[in-house]
Design a protein that fits this description.
Shape of chain A: globular
Distance between the termini of chain B: 27 Å
Shape of chain B: elongated
Radius of gyration of chain B: 20 Å
Largest sheet of chain A: 2 strands, antiparallel
Helix content of chain A: over 70%
Structural class of chain A: mainly alpha
Number of domains of chain B: 1
Oligomer: heterodimer
């Protein structure tokens, strides 16, 4: 397996683990007994740093809410989906990213949905949160994956070059 | 060719911004939206670094953005923990009461606007009360720092990469071809 594929696999596994943790929180809370409940509470505590976790705005499993709200869940799961689908559309070594305007497409509908809801102009519901969050997460994946792969490859190459020059110095 | 600018200056400024946004009560609520404050801090850090880069220097790479984001995230976690500890030392009781009043006012207004269901409002009240109780202990400060040291560098790194995507120009930044 080449370097790009190894980094890609590690990145996808990490993102997958993050998504599993979001779903594991309610499962462990409801079915995990005392130990599972403690672990679930630790997961909820960790996710509370990045999400409001409001009960009325979260998906539920076995009567317990997901680790993050429905919008965040959509963002993370579609980000994961974007990572999985990426190699079917572009080579991992291409390093190319979409036009920056796509970031506006990612952020604007989500921000508008949240802001207009808070201003009382439009009523945001689960469908709008899922759709806008999913669009954002998927587009973010198309930007972040190639740049992350490129960045780590640069760091690996630099480290290897430094290692080679050190050995070359010792040989002299 | 000249060397790239030192990363620490931008990372420290970006980290302080992340720490302030995440540590100051009420403003810190911005992080409830998928860590928008931390992501934004990562973007800002890369923007600062990019402004220090002048023609004739080694071109910027995405690895610079990645490292800058991580550095700013670590700095931000410590700054946020210091602000948190400082708030407790100075205003333990007063701050709790002040926060309770401010948040109570905001929640009352949200309730009156009718934009939120009543169970969400109750949940919000419970959550704020619980976080106010738990945060004002030494254990709370340490746990807060531990969590921040995991989450902030990850999200600031993603912000740094997004910043690289937003501010890169083909003229100054090049992607070296990587070996297969």
């Amino acid at each position: 397996m080449n370097l790009s594929k190894r980094i890609y696999t590690a990145f996808v596994l990490s993102a997958g683990l993050w998504c599993v943790a979001i779903v594991a929180a309610p499962v462990l809370y409801a079915l995990g007994g005392a130990g599972g409940r403690t672990f679930a509470e630790a997961l909820y505590l960790g996710f509370s740093r990045i999400c409001h976790q409001l009960d009325g705005r979260s998906l539920h499993l076995f009567g317990a809410k997901f680790g993050v709200c429905v919008r965040c869940t959509s963002i993370y799961f579609s980000f994961f989906l974007g990572l999985l689908l990426y190699p079917f559309f572009r080579s991992l070594d291409s390093g190319s990213i979409p036009n920056v305007r796509w970031l506006l497409v990612a952020v604007f509908p989500m921000a508008a949905d949240a802001a207009l809801n808070d201003l009382g102009i439009h009523r945001s519901d689960e469908l709008t949160r899922v759709v806008t969050g999913s669009v954002a997460g998927f587009i973010f994946a198309l930007f972040i994956l190639p740049l992350f792969l490129e960045a780590l490859k640069q760091l690996f190459i630099r480290r290897n070059l430094q290692g080679d020059s050190r050995y070359a110095g010792q040989a002299q | 060719m000249l060397d790239k600018p030192n990363k620490w200056r931008s990372a420290l400024i970006g980290g302080v911004v992340i720490g302030l946004v995440s540590g100051i009560p009420v403003i810190s609520l911005v992080n409830c939206c998928c860590c928008a404050g931390i992501l934004g801090g990562g973007v800002f850090t890369y923007y600062l670094y990019r402004n220090e880069h002048v023609e004739g220097m080694v071109p910027l790479e995405s690895s610079d953005a990645l490292i800058l984001g991580i550095m700013a995230g670590v700095v931000g976690a410590f700054v946020q923990a210091v602000i948190h500890g400082f708030m407790i030392l100075l205003f333990a009781g007063v701050q709790q009461e002040l926060m309770r009043n401010i948040m109570g006012g905001i929640i009352d207004r949200l309730e009156r606007s009718g934009g939120f269901p009543s169970d969400a409002i109750d949940q919000m009240r419970d959550q704020i009360e619980r976080s106010l109780r738990e945060s004002n202990t030494m254990w709370g400060v340490m746990l807060n720092l531990f969590m921040s040291l995991i989450i902030y560098p990850i999200f600031a790194m993603l912000g740094g990469l997004l910043g690289y995507a937003m501010f890169r120009t083909k003229k100054t930044e090049q992607t070296p071809s990587a070996p297969q």
